[in-house]
Design brief:
transferase, Sensor_HK_TwoCompSys, rod-shaped, alpha+beta, Heat Shock Protein 90, 384 residues, 5-stranded mixed β-sheet, two-stranded antiparallel ribbon, transmembrane
């Protein structure tokens, strides 16, 4: 049978209450044992030890406990000495019964259903065998004063069995619930990571690839225009962005390029790289955190990419950044005319990615057509 791979540290953390309880019971019982009854103590200790170690190999532990109980009962029968003090009518004491209950509970909690059923039946059969083997050792008259009748005995045994199985089922349900929650958390984290990578691919790599396509088309239309340096620059930036994404997937490093100390300089660089007639306006009264600056750059970058892909006859693109009252505001407006076919096609994820990025930062986002022509993008992001 495969082990549950519960290491010793986790086993000690999980089982120390049971180990302490059984140790206390065994010590208390040992004080009531006299004469040859002391020969039961080693066997009882073995049974208790197996029950404490049961979470490592539950089914094997159930088999071992059942075998040990029968061996102790046969051994004490051979000596002609009853196990003391009696817990049921004969043949078992409190520590043995507690160890059997704990083993059944662990088996029901951790093992497969059919194995749990078989193991529980074997432990119960061992307990019954101990009772049968221990019964004739002491004259029945000794039990008349304190022993319950058969009905009470059976009721007590069934009650203990229900407690064992019930506690095992309860903890099994709790374990399944925790496993489901963990799986859901892992799936959510994986989905968030996929979405972040998808946004980076769309916002960064697609931006540079779009620039390559735009410059290549310009070169086809006008052979005298030297577009090779611009294409080479965009290709280099695309490769750099791809390497960052690969690094993110391999070792968890940041996917986005690190923003410089000046958000305004970074936006100016993006505007220059785009090749569009961009007019910039800055009214930043507050310092912008690096992570927020990176997201703002992504929003500006995607807005300029959308203008390149979807607009024709663009004479001006206004990019405005301002901050006040703890809120950073971004506005990108162009006066282009919507082209019929976007450059390089359109996946339809640009606005979705921008909206998701802003929502993750607790901000608001809007985008739509301008009158009489053009497109506008608005975003408000909390600085704190």
């Amino acid at each position: 049978m495969e082990s549950t791979d519960l290491n010793w540290r986790l086993l000690a953390k999980r089982q120390w209450p049971l180990a302490l309880s059984l140790t206390g019971i065994v010590i208390a019982e040992a004080g009531a044992v006299s004469g040859l009854g002391w020969w039961q103590v080693p066997g009882v200790l073995v049974i208790c030890a197996i029950s404490v170690l049961a979470p490592r190999r539950p089914f094997d532990a159930a088999l071992a406990v059942a075998f040990a109980i029968v061996c102790v009962a046969v051994y004490m029968r051979f000596l002609g000495v009853a196990i003391e003090p009696h817990f049921f009518i004969s043949g078992a004491n409190v520590s043995m019964a507690g160890a059997a209950m704990a083993t059944i509970s662990v088996l029901v909690r951790d093992d497969a259903r059919w194995r749990a059923v078989i193991g529980t039946v074997l432990v119960l059969a061992a307990m019954v065998s101990a009772e049968v083997l221990g019964w004739p050792i002491v004259a029945p008259v000794e039990y008349d004063e304190w022993a319950p009748d058969t009905t009470s005995y059976l009721f007590g045994a069934v009650l203990l069995l229900i407690l064992s199985v019930g506690s095992g089922l309860y903890f099994r349900a709790r374990d399944n619930e925790r496993a489901s929650q963990l799986a859901a958390s892992v799936a959510a984290a994986q989905n968030a990571e996929r979405m972040a990578l998808a946004r980076e691919l769309h916002d960064v790599v697609a931006h540079y690839v779009t620039a390559i396509v735009v410059h290549a088309q310009a070169g086809q239309l006008n052979r005298e225009v030297d577009v090779l340096p611009a294409i080479a620059t965009s290709g280099t930036e695309a490769l750099t962005a791809m390497r960052r994404l690969v690094g993110t997937m391999r070792d968890g490093t940041s996917a986005g390029p690190a923003a410089s100390s000046s958000l305004m300089d970074d936006v100016r660089e993006l505007a220059a790289e785009s090749g569009l007639p961009v007019r910039l306006s800055f009214e930043l009264e507050d310092a912008v955190p690096q992570e927020l600056a990176r997201s703002v750059l992504r929003l500006v970058q995607e807005s300029l990419t959308n203008t390149q892909k979807h607009a024709a006859s663009v004479s001006s693109v206004d990019v405005a950044l301002s901050s006040s009252d703890g809120v950073l505001r971004l506005a990108v407006d162009d006066d282009g005319i919507a082209s019929g076919v976007p450059v390089g096609g359109s996946g339809g994820y640009g606005l979705v990615g921008m909206r998701e990025r802003v929502a993750l930062l607790g901000g608001t986002f809007s985008a739509g057509r301008r009158e009489p022509a053009g497109w506008t993008v608005r975003a408000e992001l909390p600085l704190a």
